Amino acid sequence: MANKTASTFLAKPVNHLYMLLVSAGALTFLGLIMVFSASSITAIDNQGSAASIVIRQLLFVAVSIPLAAYLSKLPIIRWEIIGRVGLVISIGLLGLLFIPGLGKTVNGNTNWINLKFFDVQPSEFAKLLMILWASYLLARKEKSGRHSTNVVKLIAPGFLIIMAMIMYGRDLGTTSVVAAILAGLLFVSGIQLRILGWITAAGALALAFLIATSGYRAQRFLVFLNPFAPEDYKNIGWQPAHSLLGLATGGLFGVGLGGSRQKWGNLPEAHTDFIFSVIGEELGLVGTLTVLILMAVLIYSIFRIALRAQDPMVRYACAGIGIWITVQAFLNIGSATSVLPVVGVTLPLVSYGGSALVVTLCAIGFVAGAALRDPAVRKEIVKKKSK
Question: What is the DSSP letter of 98?
Fold first, then answer.
């Protein structure tokens, strides 16, 4: 009976929209709570107020939600205009980083624009813009019936330019996410698996080269399997080691909200890259499983909406957004659990970061708009309103 009820629920397209909105809203709300908890000590040290960081995050949420609601109603033709110039805008935004006095370096990565009152991370906007740009080109190819067009030549050069610009700022984590988006879109476009395999192998070799030619990256790569090694613990292994300590001490129900010990200076970037560890310490296994379930529901609903999209650009873009969130969540949680080397990417909707939050919620708005254009969804919504 339970399986039949679940199947009936998932069979209704309108429920995919509800799953999208509820999971995204719950992750954002949980993120606000955990950003407050994880950042309170750092905020007191730097700004003199425990709430200063979470207040900024709350302001970004307040801006993002109405913006996402507006974008969900934007007609496809407007999205096509944005997609057409997405590559140019991305290059322009990333190019601002190279202007002296404008680009800001944080933890060795020059990927922020200093606007005095707050900082902006152009690479976050480039992720969504590149998805829209590639989706526009792939959709135009599909509509024209040019099946012989080489999709690799169509979208890969643009992505390589953006990846090179991001990598010039030494941000390997974001570069990896953009590369994964490219690979995912190529797969969705129907490229032969043999060709995709060669591209993936080339990407792996390029990643190995970038790691091997940087002492710091090489150390991070080698240490993640055993961050507690005596020769590494107090140096490059400190961050992943204390991330694991936080997760390990949380137990089933955690030490209690606000009770994290690792955030007291032991775990750098506790409210950004390693917020999953603080969740595990304070809310325990129950908290981390809740995050994983909500993230799985979010990703599932995005791909289900993508499969039902009638417009090819919308279909490709929704798939690209799903790939982006999946890969970034995997990299963040993998780093926190020491399954992967520390790559320095945030947990979507949960970690602190204005640029990431605004762009991710705008992407959710795009997907919600795709669902609202579905005739079956509109019919169900009208039916509920008429009751």
Answer: G
Please tell me the predicted confidence (pLDDT) of residue 230: 76
Provide the CA 88 distance to its chain's centre, in angstroms: 22
Identify which of 19-23, 168-172, 226-230, 375-379 has the greatest average pLDDT: 19-23
Do the Cβ atoms of 379 and 35 come closer than 8 Å?
A: no
Q: Could you give the CA distance from residue 359 to residue 361 in angstroms, rounded to a whole number? A: 6
Phi, psi of 310 (to 5 degrees): -85, -35
Which residues are within 8 A (CB) of 152 and not within 5 positions of it... i.e. 6 or more apart? Answer: 186, 191, 195, 199
* Alpha-carbon span 41 to 59, nearest angstrom: 20
Cα maximum dimension of the chain: 68
- Mean pLDDT value across the chain: 89
d(CA 285, CA 281): 8
The domain spans of the chain are 16-377
**Predicted TM-score (pTM) above 0.85:** yes
Name the nearest CA neighbour of 99 among 75, 115, 76, 77.
115
Please report the DSSP string for 235-302 in residue order.
TTTHHHHHHHHHHHHHTTT-S-TT--STTTTTSTTTTTTTHHHHHHHHHHHHHHHHHHHHHHHHHHHH
CB 365 within 8 A of CB 72: yes
Distance of CA 295 to the CA centre of its chain: 11
